[in-house]
Design a protein that fits this description.
The chain is mainly α.
Length: 332
């Protein structure tokens, strides 16, 4: 993930922390709890610290980049509008920054799945020269030099030494609370037949049927969490999952992203090469490009213009407006 790092939708809002507990978050249907790290369970002081650290630019090597710089709440915790994100000294990353929504439920992290835990991913993003380029000494200085952060650290961790690992744990608790389950799509599945209009309902039928989007984008998180090549290119300079497995069969494969808040997180694909939802639909409708590892599921769909209109309308029904306004997740 490029710089685990949002413009606040309501920076002046200070919600009661009682309203920011895991039990108060809107979860997808069929999900009852938010999983937390075995090494750091949820606590209110750690969440409050993690929230402050998520928005803290002084954690980065040149004090210019925070996690929120590349994961903006207003855009579904993505870096919408940027093909790739820029880290310290305006260094460009390799990939489009993904949304952080429902990261708590993922089994692997980064688009190539190289990290097994969210907290490991966060620490890697903090340390990366292309992202935040932090060190233990930099984060320690950032916390000590801020009376607010020093107080929050003591409330969360007592006299525990300030380290990148501890910072990552706290940001991880905050990030695990970025959950989405309150969309028109969710309401429709829960039985509210008026939650989707007629066009969106036609789009849902296509999503589940003729367009077979559901094969990779099903379930409560709208992702199978697996790795596929969608025939985006005929040659992949970024080899994706191959870097982890060293298997030729994984060249050009990347983890299926969630579609939650997809209308807010443009541009699309691992390299940000498709600027709009319509361009993504057209890519799949054409069956992708010829590539040896292209998934057998990527075939021409023969959707009409009207069907593409309906499908695009349905994708907008994955937008959770309550998430992007949730003051618990905004800059303190």
């Amino acid at each position: 993930m490029i710089g685990l790092c949002a413009i606040s939708c309501s920076e002046s809002t200070s919600p009661s922390m009682d309203s920011c507990s895991p039990s108060m978050m809107n979860l997808p249907g069929g999900i009852s709890v938010i999983p937390f790290s075995a090494h750091q369970s949820y606590s209110q002081p750690v969440f409050v610290l993690g929230r402050a650290l998520f928005y803290e630019g002084n954690l980065s090597g040149d004090a210019s980049v925070s996690c929120a710089s590349c994961h903006k709440q207003a855009f579904g915790f993505s870096d919408a509008g940027n093909i790739v994100s820029k880290g310290v000294a305006s260094e460009s990353g390799m990939r489009n920054a993904p949304t952080l929504i429902n990261s708590a439920f993922q089994a692997s992290f980064f688009m190539d799945g190289r990290s097994a835990t969210l907290e490991r991913q966060i620490e890697d993003a903090l340390r990366s020269p292309n992202e935040m380029y932090a060190t233990d000494s930099i984060v320690k200085k950032a916390v000590i030099n801020s009376s607010r952060l020093s107080q929050l650290w003591k409330q969360a961790f007592g006299e525990q030494e300030i380290t990148l690992g501890g910072v990552s744990m706290a940001i991880g608790v905050f990030t695990r609370m970025i959950v989405s389950g309150s969309t028109p799509h969710d309401a429709f599945l829960a039985g509210n037949q008026s939650a989707l209009n007629q066009r969106e309902q036609r789009g849902k039928l296509l999503f589940d049927g003729k367009a077979h989007c559901v094969k990779c984008h099903g379930g409560p998180h709208l992702s199978d969490g697996l790795f596929h090549s969608t025939g985006l290119h005929t040659h992949y300079y970024d080899k994706g999952r191959y870097y982890v497995t060293k298997s030729d069969a994984d060249i050009g494969t990347f983890k299926t992203p969630t579609l939650r808040n997809i209308a807010l997180t443009h541009p699309y694909m691992h390299d940000g090469s498709l600027p709009t939802l319509r361009s993504v639909i057209e890519h799949y409708n054409a069956g992708g490009k010829q590539f040896i590892n292209k998934s057998s599921d990527i075939i021409p769909l023969n959707l009409t213009k009207e069907e593409m209109d309906d499908l695009e309308a349905y994708l907008h029904a994955f937008t959770d407006s309550s998430l992007i306004r949730n003051a618990c997740l905004s800059k303190p």
